[in-house]
Design a protein that fits this description.
It contains 1 helix and 12 strands, in the order ββββββββββββα. It has 136 residues and is mainly beta. It has one domain: Jelly Rolls. The N and C termini lie close together (11 Å). The structure holds thymidine-5'-diphosphate (TYD). Thymidine-5'-diphosphate binds next to strand 4 and strand 5.
């Protein structure tokens, strides 16, 4: 639990003069089965994404191209990560508030998720999230 359970995972990288290759297997390189993949792209400069937490969902966030920051907050502690390599993924567990910003131009943020999209899994109100984590 908490931001200290969130960490950078180094993904396999097959170096090749023809171009490098990275792969991610559910349950092997990420500690969950991958049920969904989504990505953010064409992000205008200065944009902020995220601004929510998930009740149950676990995610791995990868900067497929370019760079951006991910700010994690568990209600007590905050940690900022800068993602800029496609062979590093940031594991974000459930009950963590996240904000993404500082997107470089042309950046692509890919997210692997442990479940299908479900709006009822979101906390979109920070005060509501704080109330819940502070009584956990
Ligand atoms: P949201 O999760 O708030 O985006 P972000 O965290 O990147 O800022 O989702 C934005 C919108 O997209 C929201 O209306 C829900 C919709 N959406 C889906 O329909 N399916 C998905 O898998 C995701 C991630 C979002």
């Amino acid at each position: 639990m908490g931001v200290n359970s969130c960490k950078i995972i180094e993904l396999p990288k097959i170096n090749d003069p023809r171009g490098n290759l990275t792969f991610i297997e559910g349950g092997q390189h990420v500690p969950f089965d991958i049920k969904r993949v989504y990505y953010l792209y064409d992000v205008p400069g200065g944009s902020e994404r995220g601004g929510h937490a998930h009740k149950e969902l676990h995610q791995l966030i990868v900067a497929m191209s370019g760079s951006f920051d991910v700010l994690l907050n568990d209600g007590k502690e905050e940690k900022r990560f800068h993602l800029n390599r496609s062979y590093y993924g940031l594991l974000v567990n459930n009950m963590i508030w996240r904000e993404l910003d500082n997107f470089s131009s042309g950046s692509v943020c890919m997210v692997l998720a442990s479940n299908l999209y479900d709006e009822s899994d979101y906390y979109r109100n920070y005060d509501e999230f704080l109330n819940v984590v502070n009584v956990l």
